[in-house]
Amino acid sequence: MAETVWTKVAKEKDLAEGVPLAAKVGKDDVLLVRLKGKVRACGGKCTHYGAPLAEGLVVGGEVQCPWHNARFDLATGEMTAPPALDGVGCYPVKIEKGEVFVGPKKRSEFPAMAEGKGELPSRKRTETTFAIIGAGAAGNAAAETLRREGFGGRIVLITAEPDRPYDRPNLSKDYLAGEADPDWIPLRSETFYDKLKVELLTGRRVAALDPKARTIAFEDGKALKFDQALVATGGVPRRLDVPGASLTGVFLLRSLADSKAIVAAAEKAGSAVVIGAGFIGAEAASSLRHRGLEVHLVAPEEAPLARVFGERIGQWVRGLHEEGGVRLHLGTTVKEIRGRNRVEAVVLADGTTIETNLVVTGLGITPAVACLDGTGLVTGGAVPVDGWLQTRAEGVFAAGDIALAPNPRTGEAERIEHWVVAERQGQHAARAMLGSRAHYDLVPFFWTRQFGKSLQYFGFARQWDRVAYRGRVEDGDFLAGYYAGGNLRALAASGRPKEAIAAGCAIQTGRKLSADEFEDAGTDLEALTG
Asked: Is residue 230 part of a domain?
């Protein structure tokens, strides 16, 4: 047996309780943290997009990523919450004469198994079949979690799309901007699902689900019997309803195929009109501008994203687009799209005519619940679920864009259309399918990035009666807390990741943080995690 090689990485006196410290072991980035007197070492870069975890925040026994809020167990290096898919690994630690040494990296069993170097988890294989309809954020996370948790039965992951699971948020960001290598977009390799022994059925559309007979009927006439099922079908993009909306050159932006088609069209276009100033529309405008196109953004609101973040932050986002060269047509709508066989111009309700041969629409989605018609599981276009994410039918669960889930902090049912929420619900549903009785209670998180500025959002607030601020929104370095009835319901942040994570933890735990305390620079928000 080879002798363990130890690398000196720090002095013990430099490690304060709960404060992350970056170190190097050869080419590896390592994170050191003292927890209850014991020094832990794990990988130092988030496995999602490579964020330095030393810039994140230690909460309990975990470190939370400063960029997209992925979470890792400091003792084991395991991923505990997406959007990261894999753990960061951990390192053995020893201390001698006040010096901290770490040994070779230990990797988790799951990545080794996924690479074909190991076997399925040790739990006894069963004849049980779990079906997952939808291979987006929730569906993929559920399939992987079932295996991580030791499920040895059959997993069938079904998607109507021709592609294996991919990084949907990137489609309107770096991929559309031309900054992301196409090889980055799939979440996993071509062989991953085979090695994981997950049956990935691509290009298979589900026509109906029968919760009583526990069968899935496909459009091609075939059927699948299941013991438990997760419905994670996501959303259907809303289409523009004006004359000319079906002309060649008018695109939706939802799928990988959509984004590829827009990229191909953008390479030949000199200008583009983006319709809709929500997340998809605003990100698409930023990305197409990055490609050098003349970009026009059309929306009825007075500022992008103001419905979510309020007028002040909306105006800041508006300023980013104006500085980035986007031509804004706000407070108006599209009247018609003109052209013979393909788009030639967009006519607005205010009389403006914009000549272009490329139009991208980002008008939001509606839940994709057609396969549940007649089941009684759909109410108001969504699927109500309980705290375990189970529908009204025993053994049938729902997660992601279609799920109307209870918020344990407010008692209200919420449907959240964001990637990280879908992933975390997929994780939770998988554990519930295996018998976990824990209720889903994670605070929603999402992010957007436009013109080089990231904006994070924790929580959920349909309405608020006060917004408390730290820093200056106009400088792009701020926190904004959304209060209703004196309670912090949500917060937005740019440039202050540790404070944002800490305030998000206050929402999670229900810890009281008044609006005045939020605004007081003397209030140590990071102390709220203690």
From this structure: yes
